[in-house]
Specification:
Chain lengths: 248, 475
């Protein structure tokens, strides 16, 4: 099976380890992973800020980039959801709309791809830690991927997952919201950090680097001893290896 | 502008909200309670998603044929012996209502809860015209007694006050008891009962009007609306022009959605249907009935990309789940309509000049869209506002426009994009300490006030992948 990785701009520059984990896992599961070189960003910063003319140009570029792909996999529910927005963005342009729809139909968030397409729940991972999982809003509400991450994490040997209170509350990132409305955003991430602390977990797992960057950034500023990992990094911790090489 | 509350600019209002811990505690515990009740009440129904779709279809249909149903409603109210007045503006509505009251030579007015009368500042207009106006909904009564404190929530207007604060307010009316809710309620009941008996005019809002019978339906828990509509000789009901249903059958669906979404009840204690004034042989009801149907900016929304906001049935479920609302409180929105629905509706009714920040006061987490009982895509409408502000009105900050142009350039040119991401890691190097950025400029500055930011890795994923592939090709 040929998989084209859409690594996302944030992961590319700030969290390359997450991208590496995704490649290694997919290859281990027999996928042939390619990385379309011309990929950039899904366009969400412009889209959510209301610059839809600019977004359309970015969207067209991304549609073109991923047109030859059989499956498109991305370690971000939010960016995957953005691919699903392209279709309505091109309303009145049936040709581009059809291409956008075709793109969205082949696009999967990483855990969604593992459970729905590859049909695996157990990746043979092992990580001895007490963790809690933050479900990201866009993955959860816009993309509708709710169960996959839990199913995958349940099968990680040694991992004790503590339910996060008010798990579905937003962490306060919201892209430009985090800087435009910094005071509100900070209160939201503070509340999230507090709920994480209540679980007494030493590890926070998420499936979207943007939320993790936000929560992690706050935890780090507060000096909280909570480690932050993307779910791909957790799942790439193989049973026989058991070391912490890949952990951030 | 009657919809407006407070005089401070947006960020000042946010600041006072964020620093009001008493309010936050009250809001947060109320939200938790409402969320739990809503969840249980919707799960109990079993097929909630089907109900939501049904509700959406009913609202969409009614808006599509709004002119037809309004005419039908008006005809049927007249047939039942009532008077109908279509008001284009708040001023027109207030003038009409004052005219009716004056024609009765009345001054004593009791009111049940109505957001529409808040929207047109009816109380102020009536007081200026020499009337004594009394709010009889418990929460509105509390606010009125607190020197006309504005509402902070559309279902529970005094949500921002805790019981101790309410006791303080009641003390000003002569209350000497404790902060136990039952005791305070008893006090309010005694106080209000006397006023009911002497009231000449009863004014109510309208949850829904039923076009086929010309009826007005009130959904309440306290029973005060029934006293407002049975004791005074004249009843005036004020409704927004979108708040109607074709028949009682659709009312059934919408009342179910409303009660479960708003307060987690199958049905509120009172669901009252009123058709015209008292008829011969009837035991109670007013001698005269007036229905004021208000536009006040709504018809400007019809036919636009924002039309679905007119589907709103004012249940406040979106407000009750909103994390932004939880932290800043209702008053920070500067409008009698707070929360996600307020952030969409207020700029439409009162313009961007006063309210252009509201559409940005959301992380777009979509919790509001998820709970809306009539499936209004609230977070998408917020994005649509942002689009209008940036593209049509050109009111976004110039720096942002420039940044977006730069973004487009980089995100459509892979070469430039690679260069930019590489430049980020090089430029960040001197600002970096222990893999964290210590100082930053532009949008990073506010971020770094409260959070660390990861320093870019020296090797991007892209470079790693290319190297790895080359290695693979060579081996």
């Amino acid at each position: 099976m040929r998989v084209s990785l859409f690594v996302t701009c944030l992961t590319d520059v700030f969290f390359p380890e997450v991208g590496k984990a995704v490649v290694e896992i997919l290859e281990r599961l027999g996928c042939e992973v390619d990385f379309p070189e011309t990929q950039t960003c899904c366009g969400q910063p412009a889209y959510n800020s209301g610059y839809h003319l600019e977004t359309k140009e970015v969207a067209e570029h991304m549609i073109e980039t991923f047109e030859p792909a059989e499956y498109i996999v991305t370690p971000s529910g939010s960016c995957a959801a953005m691919f699903h927005e392209y279709e309505q963005l091109f309303s009145g342009q049936p040709d581009l709309q059809a291409r956008a729809r075709a793109l969205a139909n082949r696009t999967y968030e990483f855990t969604q791809f593992l459970t729905e397409i590859l049909q695996v729940d157990d990746l043979g991972a092992e990580l001895h830690a007490t963790a809690t999982y933050h479900p990201s809003c866009h993955m959860n509400r816009l993309l509708g991927v709710t169960e996959a991450p839990y199913r995958l994490l349940e099968n990680v040997k040694g991992l004790k997952l503590i339910p996060l209170p008010h798990a579905h509350d937003c962490c306060g990132f919201g892209g430009t919201f985090s800087v435009k409305m910094n005071a509100i955003s900070s209160r939201m991430v503070d509340e999230k950090a507090q709920h994480i602390e209540e679980t007494r977990a030493g590890l926070l797992i998420g499936a979207d680097c943007s939320c993790l960057m936000n929560i992690g950034g706050r935890l780090s500023r507060l000096g909280k001893p909570v480690k932050v990992m993307h779910i791909a990094q957790v799942l790439n911790h193989l049973r026989q290896r058991g070391d912490e090489k890949d952990a951030d | 502008m009657p919809i407006k509350i407070g005089q401070d600019p947006f960020f000042k209002r946010v600041e006072s909200g964020i620093n009001d811990r008493q309010m936050q505690k009250a809001v947060s515990s109320a939200q938790e309670r409402f969320q739990k009740r809503r969840r249980e009440a919707t799960e109990e129904l079993g097929n909630w998603e089907e109900w939501r779709k049904w509700g959406e279809a009913i609202r969409a249909h009614t808006m599509r044929y709004l002119d037809y149903y309004l005419e039908q409603l008006s005809e049927n109210v007249s047939k039942a012996g009532g008077h109908v007045f279509f008001a284009r503006t708040a001023a027109e509505a207030n003038e009409y209502i004052i005219r009716v009251i004056k024609s009765k030579q009345a001054t004593r007015v009791v009111k049940s809860k109505s957001m529409m009368t808040e929207e047109i500042s009816l109380n102020k207009a009536l007081e200026e015209a020499g009337c004594e106006v009394l709010e009889t909904d418990l929460a509105e009564f509390i606010l009125q007694a607190d020197d006309h404190d504005p509402p902070s929530h559309i279902v529970v207007p005094s949500l921002h006050k805790d019981r101790e604060k309410i006791r303080e307010i009641f003390a000003r009316l002569g209350y000497q008891g404790s902060a136990v809710p039952e005791e305070m309620t008893r006090f309010a009941r005694n106080y209000l009962r006397k006023k009911f008996l002497s009231a000449e005019i009863g004014i109510t809002g309208c949850n829904f009007a039923v076009a086929e019978s010309g009826s007005v339906v009130l959904v309440t828990n306290e029973g005060n609306a029934r006293l407002c509509t049975t004791l005074p000789k004249t009843q005036i009901t004020v409704m927004g022009m979108e708040r109607l249903v074709p028949t009682w059958e659709e009312l059934d669906v919408l009342v179910t959605l409303l009660c479960r979404s708003a307060v987690g009840q199958k049905l509120t204690t009172y669901v009252t249907g009123l058709t015209g004034p008292r008829r011969e042989g009837e035991g109670d009801g007013p001698e005269e009935f007036h229905l004021v149907i208000l536009d006040n900016g709504r018809s400007n929304i019809l036919g636009t990309e924002f039309q679905s906001i007119l589907h709103c049935i004012r249940c406040a479920a979106c407000i009750n789940v909103c994390p932004v609302y939880r932290h800043i409180g209702g008053h920070a929105y500067g409008s009698i309509y707070p929360g996600p629905v307020g952030a969409v509706l207020t700029p439409l009714l009162a313009g961007y000049d006063e309210y252009k920040e509201l559409p940005y006061a959301s992380s777009l987490c979509a919790a509001c869209t998820e709970v809306c009982p009539v499936r209004i895509p609230l977070h998408e409408l917020l994005i649509e506002h942002r689009r209008k502000i940036a593209e049509d009105e050109k009111k976004a900050p110039p720096g942002e426009r420039l940044a977006m142009k730069g973004f487009r350039l980089a995100a459509t040119s892979p070469k430039l994009y690679r260069l930019a991401s590489k430049a980020a890691s090089i430029m960040a190097k001197p600002l970096t300490e222990e893999a964290k950025l210590k100082t930053g400029f532009g949008p990073l500055k506010p971020w770094l006030e409260t959070r660390d930011f990861p320093a870019p890795e020296q090797e991007t994923f892209r470079e790693w992948f290319q190297k790895r592939r080359k290695k693979g090709e060579n081996s």
